[in-house]
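Entry 14. Ran structure prediction on the chain below.
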Amino acid sequence: MILLRVAGGEYALPLGCVVEVVRMAALTPAPGGPGHVLGLLDLRGRVVPVMDLGTRLGLANGEPGLSTPICVVEAGGHAFGLVADAVTDVRPLSGPLERLEGTPADSPVAGVTHVGGRLVSVLDPDALAGAPPSTEPGQAGRVGAGR
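Output, structure tokens:
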């Protein structure tokens, strides 16, 4: 899993869904998109919508800078970028994933696990991808688009 820091908390994504991590670049505005979509990234000819992970999770969002990471993910049939404050570590999932009672079915948090003696929220990339699309109509953001 890849560990991300967002608004002072730690979150994890399964490594299998992570395509790459890139530095912040100029984003093209996505008019009419949801508030958590910062814009569109041209990733070597592939159009990728980029979300502010903090805003998507209902947390405070920071002001991205040039060194802010964008974690490019493929899930739910789409590629998208997640802006975090930092990428802190990459490691195997060592403990069991504990589901949280009362979590809504559409929650982007799949559960929690222990990492280095602390609790880390594990994100569900499919639930994150299930956010309202900001690049329709067309192929923008779809896996394989622009290839």
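The CA atoms of residues 104 and 127 lie 11 Å apart. Will compare against last week's run tomorrow.
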